[in-house]
Design goal:
Two copies of one chain form a homodimer.
Chain A lengths: L2 E8 L4 E3 L4 H4 L3 H8 L3 E3 L7 H14 L11 E5 L10 H8 L7 E6 L4 H16 L4 E6 L11 H4 L6 E7 L4 E3 L3 E4 L7 E4 L2 E4 L1 H22 L9 E4 L4 H11 L20 H10 L6 E8 L3 E9 L4
Parallel strand pairs in A: 4-5, 4-6, 12-13
Antiparallel strand pairs in A: 1-7, 2-3, 6-7, 8-14, 9-14, 10-11, 13-14
Helix pairs in contact in A: 3-4, 7-8
């Protein structure tokens, strides 16, 4: 059945240490560790770009899939709002790097923090349309290209990373029904103007706090599944403050709701698949709820269910 | 049945006259009229951006659909490589302009001249996944934002425009099977570096000349339809030279293969839907072949068939 077979992840080793910026931004250890919840942000090399991060994630995928055949890939998609160039699409560059065949479809999706959930729905439905067997969904949105070093709202928060999700017939997880939402009236709250990122942190927090609990309720009902039957809640890792709030507000079990980004930061559309990779080998995890929210403003949620092996 | 109900088009009235540039570029009337085949290029206003062009196309759609209800739109997609901002996605801004509801999905697709064919496949498959009834597929890629005024390869060729395709259950045309292709090894032949467009015209021509005939053959076979049964060949309008070449090379009937861009130029992903709008009201047109090719390098083709009214 078409679904997620495996995930490759690349989080750059190079880190920026937020404790080094305590004086510059007049912030405390407590703020860094407990409110922001990010002590270090991952940084790509200066000579790297989004396609290079995708390639590194692909190498990670290949490590655990020695029988992988690039010539069998029918479609690749890159979800990014920081492409190598405005044109062509980054997936064309990745297509070259991976030496994929001419009959491989390639397109980019422009979405932010909701991008992984959307991307999964888009690539899976696209593959079903053409009866495609093998696809790769990349996420790579290195905000180091656009953060303002003097803006503590963003420079302390965002990290660089990329992931690739291998969609095939030999799936471990299959998708249920998705929810999608948009509030374009708030599009200016997280925006890149003149190649600099601007974030109204309070508005983004309020948006997430007001929208995500209802959306999680909606996706559970849509899939006819009880909240108790969810083994992991993989929420987009906006900041520790928003994850802590959502856990409390919705009444989620803390051990089922990872907070994972302390050592690398908010990696936008990569935050959910980085955590999802950890779930693949753990057979005790049957049902996973994924929920992304941010830039747009945009949100999307879905349920992933482990296939029962015969 | 889910498919194309109607199309709205916006081609800005403002034009740049290529004859005014004859001396600057040492070119002849014959070159302008017969080889390039573009006498004027459409130009958006200086205070406009891609979302504004989308909104104008939407107003055109509304003119002929007085009973249209924005609150029933389930999803919108904007295909562009010249978004208003790198983030958020332009579809979020259009979502605001159209006062669409919170539960409307919105995402951008980054593709160039193959974007309309891809976009149709992506939005239709996405809608089928969630059983969505009404969607809007926008194309808007105003190259006036990136063309170099001193580059005769591009400034004389590209025009600004936008379209919106209304996908609904009350469709006039439904899609058959699609073909998709990518040659990432040629990604540098049409590229935007440092906000300036660069095109290797010879390479792009050679790519199209070598790839499109085979792809048209492939999509005909895939849909089990004879070339004689196609009433219109809507080929991406790269230039008069490439359209003339493809007509001759494939042996297409000239009256079935429009060349439409003399007065406004190559409008990238909008070139096919601009011509398709003209076909909607003409009941003598049953089967249409659409084929897009360019930036990436990327190509895609499909067959549209008029629904038989009972």
């Amino acid at each position: 059945m078409l679904g997620i077979q495996d995930i490759g992840v690349h989080i750059p080793k190079l880190r920026s240490n937020n404790f080094d910026n305590k004086d510059k931004f007049s912030i405390s250890d407590d703020f860094i560790e407990n409110k922001l919840g990010v002590t270090h942000t991952s940084q790509m090399e200066v000579n790297q770009d989004s396609s290079d991060l995708c390639y590194e994630a692909y190498k990670d995928l290949r490590l655990s899939n020695s029988d992988f055949s690039p010539e069998n890939i029918d479609v690749i998609t890159v979800c990014t709002q920081n492409p190598d160039y405005s044109l062509p699409h980054t997936s064309a560059i990745v297509h070259k790097m991976l030496k994929l065949p001419d009959d491989c479809a390639a397109f980019d999706i422009s979405l932010g923090c909701s991008g992984y959930v959307y991307g999964l729905a888009i690539i899976e439905s696209f593959m079903k349309l053409s009866n495609f067997k093998n696809g790769l969904l990349f996420t790579a949105d290195p905000y180091s290209k656009i953060v303002d070093d003097n803006d503590k709202n963003t420079v302390l928060l965002f990290g660089d990373a990329a992931t690739v999700t291998y969609i095939s017939q030999n799936s471990i997880f299959t998708s249920g029904k998705f929810t999608f939402g948009t509030r374009g009236s708030g599009f200016e709250h997280l925006i890149c103007r003149d190649q600099k990122l601007h974030m109204n942190g309070r508005e983004i927090f309020n948006f997430a706090a007001r929208t995500v609990p209802g959306d999680i309720q909606k996706v559970l009902e849509l899939n006819n599944i009880e909240i108790e039957d969810i083994d992991r809640f993989l929420l987009h890792q906006g900041s520790k403050f928003i994850i802590d709030f959502l856990i409390k507000r919705i009444g989620l079990e803390k051990e089922k709701t990872p907070y994972a980004i302390k050592n690398y930061g908010n990696t936008v559309s990569s935050s959910i698949p980085i955590m999802l990779k950890e779930c693949i080998g753990d057979n005790s995890i049957k049902n996973i709820l994924i929920s992304g929210f941010g830039v747009g403003l945009s949100w999307a949620s879905g349920i992933l269910t482990r296939n029962i092996n015969i």
